[in-house]
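Researcher: We plan to redesign the surface later, but first we want a full-length starting point. Tokens attached.
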């Protein structure tokens, strides 16, 4: 039962992200934060060895990312969230980026949201339909590489 509970929780998180409208998710990316904690930026990779940068704004998620990098934890090592179909200043290599307000970490996720960085880039015009429904992306082979300085 202990192993099933995290899987169910991850699937529920993916479902909740999928139910949020893409417009609302993109609007959330532009809202101002009232917390005093600074944002943190992390480089991640996937099975293709391509890399991208994500921005975390939630202090608990920032701490989880740092714990993954330091080896303090190995739980929920993969990244998931809703993408925004435009480049971000901190992630200029790609024509998309994670909405920082939707990023979370997972152990297991449903197959429909799995794709590599290059595949998402090549099929970005299809994202949000049958490919990455709701713009939810959960690359199963994603792994944080390092924390990077703010741009």
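Model: Full-length starting sequence:
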């Amino acid at each position: 039962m202990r192993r099933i509970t995290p899987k169910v929780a991850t699937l529920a998180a993916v479902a909740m992200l999928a139910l949020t409208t893409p417009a609302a998710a993109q609007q959330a990316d532009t809202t101002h934060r009232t917390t005093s904690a600074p944002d943190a930026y992390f480089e991640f990779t996937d099975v293709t060895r391509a890399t991208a940068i994500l921005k975390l704004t939630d202090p608990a998620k920032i701490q989880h990312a740092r714990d993954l990098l330091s080896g303090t934890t190995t739980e929920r090592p993969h990244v998931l969230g809703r993408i925004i179909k435009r480049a971000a200043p901190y992630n200029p290599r790609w024509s998309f980026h994670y909405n920082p307000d939707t990023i979370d970490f997972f152990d297991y996720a449903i197959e429909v949201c799995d794709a590599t960085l290059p595949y998402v880039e090549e099929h970005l015009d299809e994202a949000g339909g049958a490919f990455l429904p709701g713009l939810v992306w959960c690359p199963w082979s994603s792994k944080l590489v390092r924390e990077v300085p703010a741009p």
